[in-house]
Amino acid sequence: MSIVWYQIVAALIFCIGASGVLVRRNPLVILLCIELMLNAANLSLVGFSRMHGNMDGQIFALIVMVVAACEVAVGLGLIVAIFRRRLPIDVDELRELQG
Amino acid sequence: MAEVLFFIAAIGAIAGAIGTVGLRNPFFAVLALVCHLLALAALFLLLRAEFVAAAQVVVYAGAVMVLYVFVVAYVGGAQPLGSRSGPGLRLVSILFAGALFVELTIALVGTGLSALDTDGAGFDASFGTPALIGELFLTRFLVAFEIASLLLLIAAVGSVILARRRAGLGPAGEYSVSDILRGDRRATVTDAPPESMLEAGGPPKR
């Protein structure tokens, strides 16, 4: 299986994730779509790592997974804080920074 | 054999991605993402990245998704409002995603990277094993490794601080000085809504 097929699958998953970030209004689902985009980038990195026969891309993919875990922790903390304030969980309603 | 496995895993990954974007209930979207992550781990295995695939299953499909499921259950999965934007914005964003995909595919097909069309470079038996990844993390990529661990610590502390329960968070409600001057019973501190700014001020001093 040539590497270009893996890259095309990664591009397709990235585009699905990008459209999800634009279409959905629930911040939980937007976080999930950001995860999709990060995973597509991971697949692309691992594919290029296989293409070069070099491990650097796999190390990069592992660091991206760490950053994604941090992003999930902070994002879910924000959603819980929004929920505690009894604000609507909807990015169209959450337009103002002031409480 | 590798071709069959690739197509099964790729179709699973794309179906999981479409399910994550399309399903209305956030709980089912999380489950679709778990399917997507498992299929992606199979793709990583086909690319000879054993350790990344194992970390993907254990860290993502295990730990991070459990966090998601807990938060979806806490916030309440089904939102009463429609969870999608209007038809105009939806059309524009789907067109944008399609244009992005066409552009990326043109860039991939028309690239000058001749190695992209091969099965990949040769590799030895230690390619992608935990031993080699651990050695690289402790020698060449030590700074990145330490910064990543520091980032995890900061994110854990920050999310606990963001999500903790604290006083004075609720809506302050309708409450003005003129209400106190009029001696309106309705406006005293005792019947403040729970967890609000008024309640945080404590009971009235007598």
Describe this structure in words.
The complex is a heterodimer of chains A (99) and B (206). By secondary structure, chain A is mainly α. Chain A contains 3 helices and no strands. Chain A has helices at 3-23, 27-52, 56-84. In chain A, helix 1 runs antiparallel to helix 2 (27-52) and helix 2 (27-52) packs antiparallel against helix 3. Chain B is extended and about 85 Å long. Chain B has helices at residues 2-22, 26-46, 50-75, 87-109, 130-138, 142-163, 177-182, 197-200. In chain B, helix 1 runs antiparallel to helix 2 (26-46) and helix 2 (26-46) packs antiparallel against helix 3 (50-75). By secondary structure, chain B is an all-alpha fold.
Task: Provide a concise account of the structure shown.
The complex is a heterodimer of chains A (99) and B (206). Chain A has 99 residues and is mainly α. Helix content of chain A is 77%, strand content 0%.
What tags apply to this protein structure?
heterodimer, A: mainly alpha, 3 helices, about 75% helix, elongated, B: about 210 residues, mainly alpha
Question: What topology emerges from the helices and strands here?
Answer:
The complex is a heterodimer of chains A (99) and B (206).
Chain A: H1 3-23, H2 27-52, H3 56-84
Chain B: H1 2-22, H2 26-46, H3 50-75, H4 87-109, H5 130-138, H6 142-163, H7 177-182, H8 197-200
Helix pairs in contact in B: 1-2, 2-3
